[in-house]
Structure prediction request, 100 residues.
Amino acid sequence: MKVETGIEGLDELIGGGLPEGRVYLLNGSPGSGKSTFGMQYLTHGASFGAAGLYVTLMQNSENIIADISTYSLNLPALLKMKKYSLQIWTRRWNMGTWMN
Prediction:
């Protein structure tokens, strides 16, 4: 079974959505759309009652909310209603060492 991403055009390209019951990791350079993809997918799922988790090692919640607020995803309201959670870890991996 597949789960729709809610991203216009993508579901048609990938045959109806992503395979259900898997974990997906988004990787790419800055500005490639990882955060936007993740938030659109989680927001779409939340609109159908699905739980979601967004984990980041590089951004703080204020920046994520500000970036995503340019879209009509209503992220602050969904977070307030606990439709999904932002997990922010501020330690960064740099040249083989964890940095605070």
Q: What stands out?
A: The longest helix spans residues 34-46. The chain has a mean pLDDT of 78. The two ends are 41 Å apart (CA to CA). The longest strand covers residues 52-56.
